[in-house]
Every structure is written in structure tokens, then in C-alpha cells.
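Issue: ligand-bound run for zinc ion - logging full I/O for the record.

Environment: standard queue, default settings, no custom constraints.

Inputs:
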Amino acid sequence: MNYHIPTKLPKSFLDKLNLGLVLQVPIEPIELGKQIYCLDNVKSYLTYNPGSIKYGWIFSALGSVVIKLHGHVVVKDESGAFLCVTPPEAPLDYHNFVPDDSVGDLVVNRRLPTRAFALVDNKVVRQMVELENKSDQARLNGDKFGLDKVYLEKKRLGAEFLGTVKKYTGRNDPCYCGSGKKNKQCCQ
Ligand SMILES: [Zn+2]
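Outputs:
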């Protein structure tokens, strides 16, 4: 089971979070840019180029049961256009990006937050989402002991969670393995 980058976002769900405005932001990594360290990359870009910092979210998903929002920073250039200068973790030309200034207030130790949400009404999925969010809190705080503890809890829930995810995966849904393929063309 792995997260994938969703091509289609759950629009009505994002509307409920007031995150309906999804922009396609082109990715042009700076030289020596580091994956994940988007805040550092944007700052070094802005040392030599005009523009400003723009906070927001990008997305990953687990099958069609969990969506994860990742705090992300891009450049807002003088014309008001957005540009991502961070090397992506998957081969991508653009990010689906939702601007949200409040992400700036959630930065801890220069680390950007993630937020996981259940897309289905199911107890096991909700438990896993809770663990994902707990684990992110430990990551932000650099709490290695906390991370290990949550890792074990996630492992304990693993088999039941996988069974639940399979139950919710339709043949045309993105596969829960994270391949990005439809389930019917993947883990059947
Ligand atoms: Zn698969």
C-alpha cells in the first residue's frame, strides 16, 4: 500500500475545507534544489529573483479512501504567476496546488505539515488517518520515539486496514498499491 499522486481530486470534499481553488503550478526545479525542502528552495530562488513566498497544499492519496494534504511552498512571481522550484518526488510537470496562507502558521522547525483525511465513513480508515496525523505531528516535532510508536500502531492495524481498503476499491478506482493505475489493470 502506497500513496500516489491523484490525477483527479475530490472536488466536493475540498470545497468543504474551503480549498476549492486548485491551480496547476508548473515545476521548474532550481539547480541543487532539494526534494521536500521547498521552503529552503524558494528562499534561495528569491535571493536571485524577484517574487514572493506562497504557501499552500499539494496532494497524495491512498486508493480512494484517504487523501493527504502536504504543506508546500512555491514562488509567486511579479506577474502573480506561481512556480514550483523544488524537485518533485515523482516525475511530474506540474502540481495541483491550492494556495492557503494559513499553512505558513503551521510550519514547525522549518518543517511543513501534512493533513490526512478519510474519504469514506469507516472506523478502520478513520483510525489509520488518526495515526497518520499523529505520526506527522511527531515528524514535525522531531520526536523519533513518537514516530516509532506510531509506526508500530500502524503496523498493527495494517492487515485490517488493507482488507478495508480493498473493500472500498472499485475496479476503476486508483489502485491502493500506489501504482497510479486503475485497480482492474493492477492488483486484482
Ligand atoms: Zn496495484
